[in-house]
Specification:
The chain is α/β, with parallel strands linked by helices and about 250 residues long. The chain is about 35% helix and about 25% strand. About 15% of the residues are buried.
Length: about 250
């Protein structure tokens, strides 16, 4: 046997090890190149408009419009969705007197969700120039930038006594929602015998004569009373210690 053609086992192992090392080195190189490429793509993505907010959705709002809340949040199509500080934005929005709480979340890849909980508006009371909103937490706020549409709560007239206004608001807050939505306007009409006397115009066309005292409890009978009346007739429903209907026509 020709000795030149004989390769020792050690030399063969060394050759195999060198080839294995080369393959490992190539795999490492490709791996690092891949990671580097991914990092470059991430940097390009973060610095491009691809990472910007495309849409802002608002839910839970009833008083403030969606556009008002979006404008207040200052989140727009120039906002980077990853640089968005949701906690900071929530804190800023919660400064508004109508907003009770806010939750902002990213809905990837490019949408921001703003979930708003507002204080309930119990009524609107006339001021010198406009109507102001009475909130469930007792605050009274101005109609800045025409944010109210006056359709979600009754208009209150003549409430010059602040204590009675507060009492009225408390009673409205205790009222079942279906009855609350039936009230269009409330007039404070005190007389010598009863400073708590009020008169209400309802959305179904009836007028209610009642009192602030026990108002939320007394008004629970209103729907059942109306069911017994002829809707074509006009009149006053007296609700207090007893309840009765007085037919009366009103001038248009």
């Amino acid at each position: 046997m020709d000795k030149k053609n004989i390769v020792s086992i050690d030399e063969k192992q060394k050759t195999d090890l060198k080839q294995t090392d080369k393959r490992k080195a190539k795999r490492k190189l490709f791996f690092y190149l891949f990671i580097f490429l991914i990092l470059i793509l991430i940097i390009i993505y973060l610095q491009s408009s691809l990472s910007h907010v495309k849409e802002v959705k608002v839910k839970g709002n009833q008083v403030l419009s969606e556009s008002t809340i979006v404008n207040m949040s200052k989140i727009d199509t120039e906002t980077n969705i990853w640089n968005l500080s949701t906690n900071k934005k929530e804190f800023e929005l919660e400064k508004h007197p109508i907003i009770k709480s806010v939750k902002i979340e990213r809905d990837l890849p490019s949408t921001v969700m703003i979930d708003v909980t507002e204080y309930k508006v119990l009524g609107y009371i006339k001021s010198k120039k406009d109507y102001q909103a009475i909130l469930e937490d007792g605050n009274i706020i101005k109609n800045e930038k025409n944010i109210f549409d006056y359709s979600n709560a009754p208009l209150l007239h003549g409430f010059k006594d602040k204590k009675l206004l507060k009492r009225m608001a408390e009673e409205l807050n205790e009222l079942p929602e279906n009855i609350f939505q039936m009230i269009s306007e409330i007039y404070w009409m005190p007389d010598k015998n009863n400073e708590y006397k009020i008169e209400m115009f309802m959305v179904d066309g009836f007028v209610v004569d009642t009192t602030i005292r026990g108002f939320s409890e007394n008004m629970k009978v209103y729907p059942s009373i109306v069911l017994q009346l002829d809707s074509t007739k006009q009149g006053i429903i007296h609700i207090g210690k007893g309840s009765y209907f007085e037919e009366k026509k009103y001038k248009n």
